[in-house]
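Re-run with default settings, no changes from the original entry. Doing this only to confirm the output is reproducible before filing.
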Amino acid sequence: MILSELIDYGTLRVIWWVLLGVLLIGFALTDGFDMGVGALLPFVAKTDTERRLVINTVGPVWEGNQVWFILGGGAIFAAWPPLYAVSFSGFYLAMWLILAALILRPVAFKYRSKRPGKLWRERWDWALFTGGAVPAAIFGVAVGNVLRGVPFHLNDRLMPFYDGWGFLKLLALLNPFALVCGAVSVAMLLAHGAGWLVLKSEGPIVERARKIGSAAGLVAIGGYALAGLWLLVLTDGYQFAGAVAHDGPSNPLLNEVVKGGTWLSAYVGRPWIIAAPLMGFAGMGLAVLGLRRGWGFTILASKLGIFGMIASVGLTMFPFILPSSVDPNSSLTVWDASSSQRTLFVMLVAAVIFMPLILGYTAWVYKVLWGKVTERDLDENANSY
């Protein structure tokens, strides 16, 4: 018996669907708060000292947090090659904007403190704002468009073709539903960043973060509810027209997919997934309450809210990963868009070995860096930003 056959193909596909979700949610939970802090920077800190304090709350950890983004991209490339091919080529402009914004962050962190000039530092502060707000907005808009269906098709040789090029077609990506999702994404990361500042800073910074963060949390809750209602009333879902083999070949064209009904019908067949949106509402609601009262555990509440909101998207769409709006039969699903069984098994072995090491090291880093950042820390540490 081949070692890779110890776990059947269908189970491996589900495991890697879950792991992909874990990596993307891990990115939102970790890099999300430092992007939120960057987006809040020009508004919660008024003096140069205050801005240095804000920057130094995330300065030691932001680079490590971005590892989750790299791991997520790598997992898509290795475990779901068709998804990588369609999304990274079809959303090329969006990916370019995200990467350009993310590239601004390390440059801003490193260059801001090189000169004392007010104008010099303010420009890099707005670069940090851009590096936090722009990716958050684009990720949300992308999720909204995925739920509506992406304009691509596969030919008989399974080569993907993106049908959304052209100015008007690209402009259509900024549709009202996608913009609502983008607003939810930005708002929940602002609340998340505010929770981090409550935990790691003090004084006027905390008070401003509490006000802005609690308002952002309410926007996230309202936008999330609106998006759910939109999915129920105005957005078509996708479903298989017949039975599908969970361990079949990775060929979407072998299955028949129809567009119609609602995504929320998933809650009828799998009622237990209601736990995800409930976690989203409850977590973000507790985050708003915690921000208003200055609770230190607010960051945990916002993590719970973000986890629930993102998980609800994946659970609602399952088994679809990337539906096609122009040719539903080309839609990519868990059952027909993965790498081979052996590839998924080898990757799983590597994940079982290395993921605990990454999590353990991350926990150790946060333990070492525990505590609030103060003006005295800035004065005593020559390596501060």
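The beta strands are 152-154, 160-162, 238-240, 257-259, 320-322, 332-333. The mean pLDDT is 90.
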